[in-house]
Write a structure and sequence with these properties.
The chain is an all-alpha fold. The protein is built from three helices and no strands. The protein starts with 12 loop residues before the first helix and ends with a helix.
Length: 81
Amino acid sequence: MGNTTTLSYTDDKFLEEKLTQHSKNTGISKSKIIASALKLYFDEIDEDEIDLKLAMKISEKIESGEMKTYSLEEVCKELKL
């Protein structure tokens, strides 16, 4: 199966039962379900880090005056809403 490793974890009975039931209902192995969940988790963390870096850059531009912010009233007036 290529580059694989064995992990062990301890969890509460409720999650173990849900994992087992989902595995039985879908025919997907518990290992694949856990691997998929971990991939989604780390993908989300990566996205959060990218979002944070972008937000920090924008904040720096606003603080330096390089970028301007507009109030809702200013936007409505500009768009004649």
